[in-house]
Input
Amino acid sequence: MVFSSPTFLYYFLPITVIAYFLTPMIKGSPRWRNITLLVASLIFYAWGEPRYVFLMIAQCIVAWGFSLLIEKYQENKKLARIFMFISISVSLAGLIYFKYANFFIGNVNNLTNSNIPFIRMIMPIGISFYTFQFVSYTLDLYNRKFSAQRNLLNFSTYVASFPQLIAGPIVRYTDIAEDLVKRVHTWSHFALGSRRFILGLGKKMLLANLFGELVEIYKVSGDRSVLFVWLYVVAYSFQIYFDFSGYSDMAIGLGQIFGFKFPENFNYPYIADSITNFWRRWHMTLSGWFRDYVYIPLGGNRVKQARFIFNIMIVWMLTGFWHGADWNFILWGGYFGIILLIEKFFLGKLLDKAYRPFRHIYVMLIVFVSWAFFDALSFHAAFDVIGRMIGVSADSLASNEALYYLRSYMIPFILGIVGCTPLVINISKKIDKKKTAALILEPLVLFVILLLSTAAMVDGSFNPFIYFRF
Amino acid sequence: MKNLTLKELMTIIVSIGFIGILFVLNIVVPSPDVLVSERRMPARFPAINLNDIYTGDFMTRFEDYAADNFVFRDMFRATNAFLIFEVYRQNDKSGLYRSNNVGLGEFSRINENAFRQTSVRIHRAAGIFDGLDMNIYYSVVPDKSVFCESYRPGFMLSVAEEILFDVMDDYEYIRIQDDLSAECFYRTDLHWDQTMISNTTRKLLSAMGANTELTNHPILTAGDFYGVYAGQYALPIVPDLLKYVDVPNLSVRYLNERTLLMDDGPVYDLVRFAGVDPYDIFLRGPQPLIIIENEDTPERVLYLFRDSFGSSLAPLLMEAYSKIYVIDLRYLNIALLEMFIDFTPGSDVLFIYSSQIFNNPTILQS
Output
């Protein structure tokens, strides 16, 4: 089930909210509400993946069981480490099998000229996200950052709560440990959560899907002019940002409605003035995860230069690999690793002195090229797109079709540019100071977004979330 | 609620009110029998069984049901169309465009592989006439987007012809695009207006060596016509007027698919004007086999392989033929044709299909 579907918004969500708030809090404990939320989350997950809901439940039980063992034997380092290792292995095994097995089989076949059959299966939705939650929970518990969650239902609610289950943000146990056992539900939180959810819905339905259509048009069109390939990469850049940040907004908003405080995942990444800065703003919970659970354990930057370079490249290639089981994703990650190293050693200081607009142009060019890798079906296709961006093997500079779509998407592109900056939120803050205007304007804007998003939802079926495939 | 600001209260009223009201209405308002503007039945509430739940089929069907039966569906569709056309000022909505001279249309981009496959199927179908000394012709009805005053991505005759010449090189091609214009098509529909295609008719008859002198028959009106694009467009639009040429002295027989006998029927079945597709008044729309006869014209036979464009064309061609077999390969397999027809050697054969058909190779049964 996707958030941007009539089924979710006009059936599942109202029923879940009613059931949740009708469930009593007993002595201030949200225990029963957790159960309601868990049941709703399992239905939510089973709606899209009826078979794999059992896999997720089994993984929850295993991770929870081992967490109790890790805690029980925490004084026996060796045993605790073995339990930690087994728990993480079991969690990762699911991810490796469902997401990466065919990648490895394909590469072994290519390298050895063998013919090992591919495994016919569908990847469980959200497995990349919830596996990382298992791993972070286990490692943090092993490092004694908190006590184990003794209640399986609470633990399962942490992993499986539907707002963040299938496309993040990657929530760590420490983020919501307190909320799981004691949280406050206020109408203010409900209002803030609703607002955030509606804004995210608008990003998805009114911008991301629109740019997604242009991306699809480019792919089916035979037109390969320079202009059209630029329209494609720019549209894809907008699509992936509004799609994913919209989903994160919806997740965070829903979390607020149910009394949780999920971490932020995006902070206007396209206004970054360096790639280092970009990655502090894009998918922050993922980069934070790799920093804390891969980069720092590898030694971080407190190592010799060669090792530091190795650490950076490993972390970024793994980041790419997390996004997809294909070489183009590894290359995409490696590409960012190299850029980050260049910034660290050479470019960073130059950038600091550079004219500010130039820094933004630099970032966006790097990002556009990266999305060409990201969205490509193969190396060849990626380099083909990048080549055409600079005119190599392009059919023409600007075809009739490209000009047609440039005209057609002029206003969405302007809205996209504005939407990528804090301009709207800054205006909103100014209006907030004028109490009367804010009182009318904000609810009115939210109403219009809900109306238009529902209209787009009812009218079209083109609304897959990009990050579901990761 | 004590610490709630007025703005937060308004936000809650908007969100709970909007979602809550639609939630309730979606449950209590009965489903429509038919989605009139979309010319189709809505998805029905799926039967609940464990197997369908386990396989996910139930969920998929429920999603369809929830979307199709959404309350105020047409109003929401119109709102979205308004957003796309009037706010975003986009040239089209998922390929549905509006243009000053041709009205509404939908891109019919040539899928070269599909186009080639359809050409091969038509060529294969024409093989049934091998050894009968037939004069075989073919033509393609261009999508009306080619007549737009400004560029629209879509049909390109040059690309189509390149493929056709390659595959159908042993038959004679009749190019009709030059004899058509934006005015020949309905503004709200993909079809041509029968009363506006006399030049095209002459061109076809001339190419087939037939009489090209067309009589000015009376033009009659069926009524306001909201074409297929009007429903897709969703915004209010002025309807077309469905008109037809009253060609006299035609007798028409339709293949009865149950009895496999030929039943008499009208050229223009006005009862169908009130149906899902009013354009079906022309030779009753989709029909596998029709025989039209005109005793007043010299003996000359045409085997016309066609789609819905051919339904309105066929009566006009009767000026030059005494008998036309109107065959729709979408509903009749070419291999079964000899069960119903004794071919007259030396006759004319015309394959004429629109670009939409050429883009869907599996639709023809040959």
In short: Chain B has a mean pLDDT of 89. The longest helix of chain B spans residues 6-28. The longest strand of chain B covers residues 135-141.
